[in-house]
Amino acid sequence: MNALLKSLFAATAFTSITAAAAVSDISGTEAKFTFEGTIAPMCKTSSGSSNSVTGLKLDSSQQTQEIGTLDVWCNTGENATTEYTSANGGFLVANNAKGSKIAYTLNIGDTSGIDLQTGTYKHSKATTAGTGVTGETQATSLKITPQSNGLDDAGTYSDTITVTVSPN
């Protein structure tokens, strides 16, 4: 058994010496390492500090009312593209037996009169976004103008707008 171990040790030592010799045969004064990685363009959003409004004024005044702020951050240094979708197709829908509806328009910052009854609205390259490693966002005000005539059916009317944000 000792002879076998001595042979194995000798073979291992020879292999180690050979490997070291191979490295020492390559001579030079510098070594170069090239590497890279990619961070994909990305935006993040939240609905700010207020994303649930009760007590909308639904009368004939058709008063424009704030429903919240959209906070956006992107790592591209550019404004974001946002898409707005209404759960009720651009209507405030009542919890009454009729499911009564009141149309409304949406304002996104300085863009006003958006009708979500036609489907998703895409606000291309227009929503202000924060940038930088601190993650500070920029806020955009969201407002609606109910198209109430003051003679609508009794009930509590509501809708939910979903906003999807993407980089440019």
From TrEMBL:
<feature type="signal peptide">
    <location>
        <begin position="1"/>
        <end position="21"/>
    </location>
</feature>
<keyword id="KW-0732">Signal</keyword>
<protein>
    <recommendedName>
        <fullName>Spore coat protein U domain-containing protein</fullName>
    </recommendedName>
</protein>
